């Protein structure tokens, strides 16, 4: 069958694949022979955003490198659910060393490959928000600063899920975690100054920084592909909801990601050498309530007497993102 | 100073002897008082303790004379003392203290001046080694020069060798004169 | 390599861990009934034929379409498309232009001369069909496809029935109608013209038919008692419209008054305009809201300068004028006279008050039940007399071409079953794919394309077709606006969003399968399915 | 080739001859000169192909080495003291994953109070992390042990730590016999890793292992070190054959035949002890020395064999197991279980305190008379200690011990003056 020029919605702008697209225009995930880098049988929870994000990203990277890929993995959910002896779910050469040293291990791998003249083999370091924004931060910053030829991917589910949902520096304000309980006068996590890893990565002026969510596969794959075209230190921050830790329905993982972006709470953009080069605009702007309400970790904001002040505060964060990154189409809304 | 001890050990090594040079370890910053040691022997040196009873003492900075117990352990009689100064032992106020030493083993040399003259910088090490070779006769000037060239290749090295040679000559000259005086008395 | 024990593992080994056992809910692929299909009186599988159309496979689309309706080109013009009123897309931006795509496919078929597939084996049975209108033609087509020999007896000089004698050219060009009728006849359907059936039983007997389907339509214009002077020129709408097909044009004068509020009234008023009437006025006793005529028709009529007198009745008609009485709606919404009258100049008055059925052919048939001037039929379209079925305008129902075509199909299936000594049982209907079952995020905004319309001057002077066709790319665009409600369109979402790779892609046209060995039952696939083709059901424990 | 150079430079040259492919550097005294020298060789191209990476911490240094080693590259780094402690988590990991990283530890004390001078507290803190630990007596041996370390580690897939006394060896200028490249290539084969990260044969390294297999994994780690007990002497012999000198091995005896008193120690202090022993021998004392080169694995059998005939053992160690005393001596005692002899633990040279012949003579004589305390702190200034203990008994807020001691010694005062 001859394919029509891509002109209309069903040719897959928002869906994963679609029969109407020429095969080379479909997403990696739509491919019947996709690599399933993180194959079935892993022990992730139902509807795990991290499992999804990891397969999206690594499949895309394998596709971009013709499977010439090695990954280093930080301690955390992803590592534990993917490689409990005697089974591993990974299809690529993969190493888990420690919680805080993944970027450095990757640096070592890249250095060794360089010495051995295996420039074709590319290196990915990956971990959760704990292994990235907290305990792994030192090694990560060092890797950035030296501009080592490593792509670091952070799967951000905004808390230490592996140990039972404790607060991390990526945990959003007001969110309930095991160490920021929804009790007292200021329930949930504190309103700090925030620790925006993508911006911090940009402050290292590395060649490439991007954010993505599991709700926009094509965008995510494009960013991984772009990252793989570049040499040097690269960083992709992927928003991956955790049904268990956030207290939302397992089937809402993608919906929640979508809401995070559409409310402006999670800006999706790209930056090269410290400059923002592209922004994924909000399609249908929504108030933050839409995002907060389906998550039990924010349930205390919607009790008998809703915490309107807190919600307004969170809305202000979203508005700031919208202003800072220009998330809303000019003239729209 | 540390460099001095190093070069001294190299010079000894070049003359086929065993030598062990090491600093008085510390987190000193440039300019702070330091002590460095050098052992020279004909058999392998296994000893790792600091030198507490030196046979010879090279004092690079006479201003320390009254601050630290510089002379502790130095055996009166057959100990060597070489001081980097243009003044005399008496002018330095230690004439009385060194009275017990054999005068031909007590020498001063304006090493810093020589360094400034030949190297252009106040680094007296090389000159002091030249002087040391002269006063002790334990090393010949050639191996000192070789050690210096080994440490500082090129122009700087040659400058230092010149300084060392000058110091060597000066000390030798003084000793000759001293010897004459001795006979004269 | 000789790997360290336990610390180093072979890739992919976790396939040994069947996580399917975690599942408490199981996803199922389902086909739900799209609202368009559900609303189509002709029972078309609209989503089904839009699907191949989306990939530009128009012939396949046309073949799916014509499994239910042999007259797409006609339907694409005269159908009032209840499908579009039901379309879920209306809640996003505007309904899919189903009718215009259908018309495009119909015209494409005529242009390319596509023919119907050869028949199944002959059954050896003969069926008589009375009336070559939409219902009769539809029945003939379906019966023929089912392998029966079919003979149509048509009283008129040409086939088409109301499609020919009721609907004006400017809505349905005759060459289109003829092309589609011919295609049906080419299947080997006998057509006898000017062959009025006076006595159905004798015709059945003489023709040795095994069954009959009656679809004579309703061609007798209803009369209303209006005191009229001898000079007054009064005609009825049906005759007027029929005469339009004849040699010489009827003379209506400069001022024409049409009495009634149905589609026929509109047709007449617009026809009068085209015949040169300076004034074409519709007199209707109620308000626009209450008017039975289809809104688009009313709109087009007004555009063309037709005037409408709401809340008015004709008291009497004179030589060159009529007297009109104003009405008011009572609380029940019925018009009540006010006694207030005025005079309208009128060279002629056309009564468009509905049509009656000519039931003379049924005289003496035992068991028939006739009520309100129409023949009563059972759910299988059979009359009280075994083997005689009826449909279209002569049975109780809405009187549209689409309904008639639907009757033809339905009757054909029952006749077929009856001839084979069985009963036709329609397959159970799927659950309706309502809007709430969709995840419309995945559909980008794409407003409906408007079909071109003829410029106003030519609309008032000629009988050229008013509404034009979509070109190929527009038709494709419209087809692709379809949300494919309740039916998988292979967007790969389920395959992509499964965190456990538990969806197996079977390849183009083969859709997908769940791998229950690993599916943990999270339900992401169902939530993210754009068209609601996945259902979560509890696992039996 | 003989050269009079600094110990650090000697080690750097030896490491370079081993053709390392990835070197990670983070500065900390007294190790720094080694990586500085290596860094220069890589920059100048004298050492190639090799990646020299200036990391941002010791934790990162060991982690980079782990990554490089996992790809089959020969990885090296050096550290000391606090730096070693900062990489502890990665130390266990490198050993657990069986990655043959080689690391120099320029032994130095551990704070608080911060102290940059030599003792063995740093290396001893890592005695159970799974690394092989070799202690050098001289700079020549330090140099040679690095060549042996790569051979041993890669053959066993275990990381190896070469310990050399900070400053005392690292900063000492001595005559060193530098091997030629051909000799080293002859002795040290290409690295053939047991496991490697390679897309051509993907594996997952570093799985989570539960109770069902963890004990086995740990036992295998132990078994590998036991294999080292056999390999080390073999490697020592081969080394002698190629390089023509004795270096390494498990233990080194010195005048132990007929000795009634045997002194056991690690590292450079053995030199001073040997000189002392020679002097005492010349005076008729039956005293000998047992130097331990391989502390991990600990050569229980050899130690037992050597010490068994003696009447007393004096263990001199530069580290303190606070709350019990000796670390080396505890290991020695394990070797002597069931053997009846006097055992003395002497804690000496902490934080750079010189160990002098004078003190040793006194010590050994007391030992011979069995007047020594089971646990002795060499040259401990009892006046200071007692004064502090007194003061602490008297007042609650007696201030930080280190500072008060300095005040007692008068150093602080002197600085001020």
How many separate helices of chain B? 5
Q: Spatial order of the strands in the main sheet of chain B? A: 3-4-5
CA-to-CA gap between the ends of chain A? 41 Å
CATH topology of the largest domain in chain A, anyone?
Rossmann fold
SS elements, strand count of chain B:
5
Main sheet summary of chain A? 8 strands, mixed
Estimated structural class of chain A: alpha/beta
Structural class of chain B: alpha/beta
- The poorly predicted ranges of chain A are 1-12
C-alpha-based Rg of chain B, rounded = 16 Å
CATH evolutionary superfamily of chain B: Pyruvate-ferredoxin oxidoreductase, PFOR, domain III
What do you see in this structure?
The complex is a heterotetramer of chains A (333), B (185), C (541) and D (417). Chain A is α/β, with parallel strands linked by helices and 333 residues long. Chain A contains eleven helices and eight strands. Chain A folds into two domains: 1-34, no CATH class; 40-325, Thiamin diphosphate (ThDP)-binding fold, Pyr/PP domains (Rossmann fold), CATH 3.40.50. In chain A, helix 2 (77-82) links the parallel strand 1 and strand 2 (94-96). Chain A is globular. Chain A starts with 48 loop residues before the first helix and ends in an 8-residue tail after the last helix. The model of chain A is unreliable at 1-12 (pLDDT under 50). In chain B, helix 4 runs antiparallel to helix 5. Chain C folds into four domains: 13-31 and 488-538, Alpha-Beta Plaits (2-Layer Sandwich); 38-115 and 453-478, Orthogonal Bundle (Fumarate Reductase Iron-sulfur Protein, Chain B, domain 2); 126-220 and 356-419, FAD/NAD(P)-binding domain; 227-355, FAD/NAD(P)-binding domain, CATH 3.50.50. Chain C is 29% helix and 17% strand. In chain C, helix 12 links the parallel strand 9 (255-259) and strand 10 (279-283). Chain C is globular and about 115 Å long. The mean pLDDT of chain C is 92. Chain D has helices at 7-17, 32-44, 58-70, 81-86, 88-96, 121-125, 139-156, 181-187, 211-243, 269-282, 300-307, 328-335, 357-368, 382-394, 401-409, 411-416; strands at residues 2-6, 22-25, 51-54, 75-79, 102-107, 132-135, 160-165, 173-177, 203-205, 251-254, 261-265, 287-292, 294-296, 312-317, 342-347, 375-377. The longest helix of chain D is centred in the middle third of the chain and has 33 residues, at 211-243. The relative contact order of chain D is 0.10. The model of chain D is unreliable at 412-417 (pLDDT under 50). Strand 2 (94-96) of chain A pairs parallel with strand 9 of chain D, so a sheet runs across the interface.
Summed up, what is this model?
Chain B is of the alpha/beta class and 185 residues long.
